[in-house]
Amino acid sequence: MGTTGGRSVAAWTARAAGVLAAAALLTACGSGSDDETSGDGDGGSTTLSLWHYYGTPDTPTGAALQGLLDRYEEEHDGVTIEARHIPFGDFTRTLLQSAAGGDLPDIALINGFTTQALADAGVIQDLSDRVEEWGESDAYFETGWETTQVDGATYAIPHVADAYAVYYNETMLAEAGLEPPATWAEMQEHATALSDGERYGLAFSGIEGDEGATALVIRLLAAGGDPAEIDSEAGVTALTQFADMIAGGAVSTGVLTWNEEDVKNQFANGQAAMMINSATYLSVLTEENPELQWNVALLPTDAQASTFLSQENLAISTSTENADAAWDVIAWMQRPEVLAEYLPERNKLAARDDVDTGDDPVRAIFAEQLQQAWAPEGDLAAASSEVLTRIQGALQAAAGGGASVEDALAEAQGQIDEALANVE
Amino acid sequence: MTTTVTEPGTANGTTPVRAPQRARHWGEHLFVVPAVVFVLATVLYPLVFNVDLSFRDVGVAQIVTGGAEWVGWENYADQLGRDEFWHALVISLLYTGLAVVVAFALGMALAVYFNQRFPGRNVMRSLLLLAWILPTVVSANVWRWMLDGSYGLVNALLEAVGLVDGDLFWLARPVPALFAVVIATAWSFTPFIMILLLAGLQGIPDTLYEAAKIDGAGAWRRFTSVTMPLLKPVNLTALLLCFISTFKTFDTVFLMTRGGPGEATMILPIYAYNEAFEFFRFDTGAVATTLMLVVPLGLSVFYFRSLRREEAA
């Protein structure tokens, strides 16, 4: 190959590559769409589609749900439920995209906090009449039921509830001669005393995004604060304490990168003496770490006792042709005897007060904690993802980014106010 | 995430090499139709849809039921007035620029190295390509684990040689996090650049190096006076491709930091993703992605211009 030949070949390749790059750039703007046929009546039999984010049937959480659906099918001839798992992070987005494409499932098992957004978007239908006829709404605890309400109408019914409490390593606390903390000041003292350079006193998830706001919201609520008003006395108290615990080594800086599963692993490996987590990990901890001696205590309280609600709701899509059959499924799932079998498998709590889930003391603590659960309402519910993301941002700025507590809170407050003002 | 589409119709017109006569049958154009339809459906339609979206007031309700109101430039004015947008643009440019520089320097060094003949060269080269082939979801998570403060390999190594004392959580601190995503991105782009540059290097005839050697040029002089000038078109291509691919990178950073800590690695693609799919502001998300196109498009124009100059010279 001669010099000129080499150069022109290179130039040609370069040009072709440029075109390819432009094509790649443009295609990157395109968005994918899903093809999913929704269920329809077929002679005497009905096929219902149900979307959820609990996991594929080979995971413990997914298997519990699949078992529940199988039990329904066994009791109801001619009804088939086709479950589809969509990962949590993609769930709401996929529902909205599918709604835009007119391709929704009959039933959606949604995050309780997204009920309002999905109702506003016209993805899920008003169930008020059915619920009134059903007449069981009084059995639900108030905060959980509140997540199903949008402008006075009921758009979903609760499926399961969960709350955050304190898991503690009994061995480590006993060695240090400590009892689970009753106040947040005690929590800080204990966490400091329990950390020794190798392990930390307390772990919680502070990861980027709304998931990482939970612990700070819990602390803020304990101080009598309101998550919509984070730039307040309670906000300063909460964030100052968290920043101090991280700076002082009682809590690892790693919390800013850990999700709840990571936190569970830190606790299971003895890297953290206490953790703030939900009931989700109860049986996992028992099965995977049988030698670990642990227990659960109520969250510390200061001005008020409060925890963060985690709840899934069952909703029926606006485009279903099987609304009656779908309602039958979601109402059946809420029968106390059905829940009594399902909830322990799923490591979740009942959102209603007439379910006998046995006398397991740990579950009893979670159930007690659940009574004090907080959930966003109204405008805050509509903008909860963004508001919680901003609260995590304040934690990050003060604990990892070198900002002062006051600056971090002021910055977050500005963003929260904007997010709330954007709610239509 | 990256989709590279090779289109027979787009690369070099439709001129068949052996077309003898000038007159063409209209039937020939039929062969291009599938390609044109494909490009229209997968490239042009989403692009136009996105631009259209950016001029409307689209919230969560409008995306499902339609009927979004036309608001003209309002969304653009809103975005351009937001500190968060400019912050994301600056972070994007910083991240892309640093990653391209690092990847290019490493890629060039490796290309020059592998341009020599030595035993095991092909095996080594293929192994290096693994970094490029590996799915991002794998590599980004591996980086995340390696950079973890409590069980991460990187921290353990740095601690062993005494550079770090105690747990350093790379992805929890703003500057180390940005540094980390730059390194992770550069790591995956390096083999790609190496391959491109290597192809260019192999097009440079040995005789030129021999002549330079006879003229008394040392290794460095041969690199700066023979290799670099002759490699200029390839360099430009490699830099541009790498810049565009990095500028629109989403997966690596999203998996490693989700744009955090705080907003330290909040690049434009993640900013746009958050606007649309976390906060359900589809209109401002569309504005961000449309504005995101401006930088690579500007670079492409610059690239084609300089290519033409290069050819004319």
From TrEMBL, chain A:
Gene3D superfamilies: Periplasmic binding protein-like II (3.40.190.10). Residues 1-21 form the signal peptide. InterPro entries: Bact_solute-bd_prot1, SBP. The keyword Cytoplasm does not apply. It comes from the Bacteria. Keywords: Signal. The keyword Translocase does not apply. This is Extracellular solute-binding protein. SUPFAM superfamilies: Periplasmic binding protein-like II (SSF53850).
UniProtKB/TrEMBL annotation, chain B:
GO terms for cellular component: plasma membrane. It comes from the Bacteria. GO terms for biological process: transmembrane transport. This is Sugar ABC transporter permease. It is found in: Cell membrane. It is a multi-pass membrane protein. It comes from Jiangella ureilytica. Residues 89-303 form the ABC transmembrane type-1 domain. CDD domains: TM_PBP2.
